Amino acid sequence: MGMTARVLAVDAGNSKTDVAVVAADGTVLATARGGGFRPPVVGVRAAVDALAEAVDRAFAAAGVDSVEHVSACLANADFPVEEEQLAAALHARAWGASTEVRNDTFAILRAGVTEPRGVAVVCGAGINCVGMRPDGRTARFPALGRISGDWGGGWGLAEEALWHAARAEDGRGAPTALAHTLPAHFGHDTMLALIEALHLEEVEPVRRHELTPVLFETAADGDPIARAIVDRLADEVVTMATVALTRLDLLEEETPVLLGGGVLAARHPQLDDRIRELLAVRAPKAVARVVTASPVLGAALLGLDRVGARAEVHERLRAHFEG
């Protein structure tokens, strides 16, 4: 023990945490996986305790007891004040000489680009977008749901589909196949039965997100209302990306726009095609692609950016995760 590695990378999402210990030459000395990181639910101290369990395992496996720099990309770090609080809580653990905390969307962005330059839109349970330039400028949104102006994300799409399906069945809205496909997913014949099951929690509330893939299947079968919801998501993705590109003065130069998260990584043809059509009009120089690289790679690359590592160090690290 007693050796110092270059970077401790942490990618902590709502459902799981990945950590990696990276040597000065870009070799990955150890990785570990832990549970979800949810300070709003359990409090900062308990959330960091859970993180520490995975970090301790990685340090032990790597044979190190500290690093030069801790690069942590964390879910729920939505405002700079939250990043500062979490950075202080992590720094107090004395894992590294310096500590930087960013929102976890930055990890997905950095994982998909060769330099810290581009925009990422992530659509998983929620929707978020960030952008960065090599000079350190960033663009971001609070991404707290409807109160911060967001529309989309798996939860939002499921809610939108339920809304249209309920109104179709009772006559307040236009007919849609969603009125049959959504309840059928949970073994019900009618929306009324599904609404009652959701209300009485006979269907666990956490399972509501299962309706998002049903929405996409219904759209693929040609249902106009389902298709309109998918088109609206494409519009929202492109709107967020275009605003971030504009804020960073990247609209006029060729810039990667990375698409990540479960909903975008699923590559639904209608959604994919519509995003590319709209980008061609609103941000013609943007180069859209789906990012599948592990976000902990992005956290590690951000750490190497910070310590001024050479290009071949970045390449060795990337080869480990993509090999």
Give an overview of the whole structure:
By secondary structure, this protein is an alpha/beta fold. The chain folds into 2 domains: 3-112 and 293-322, Nucleotidyltransferase, domain 5; 117-292, 2-Layer Sandwich (Nucleotidyltransferase, domain 5). The chain has 13 helices and 10 strands. It has helices at 39-42, 44-62, 80-91, 105-111, 153-170, 178-185, 191-199, 211-220, 224-247, 262-265, 269-282, 295-307, 311-322; strands spanning 3-12, 17-22, 28-34, 64-74, 96-103, 118-123, 127-132, 138-140, 255-260, 286-290. The strands form 2 sheets. A 5-stranded mixed β-sheet has the order 3-2-1-4-5, with helices on both faces. The chain has a 5-stranded mixed β-sheet with strand order 8-7-6-9-10, with helices on both faces. A hairpin with a 5-residue loop joins strand 7 and strand 8 (138-140). The longest helix is centred in the last third of the chain and has 24 residues, at 224-247. The mean pLDDT is 95. This is ATPase. It holds the Pfam family BcrAD_BadFG. InterPro entries: ATPase_BadF (IPR002731), ATPase_NBD (IPR043129), NAGK-like (IPR039758). Residues 10-303 form the ATPase BadF/BadG/BcrA/BcrD type domain.
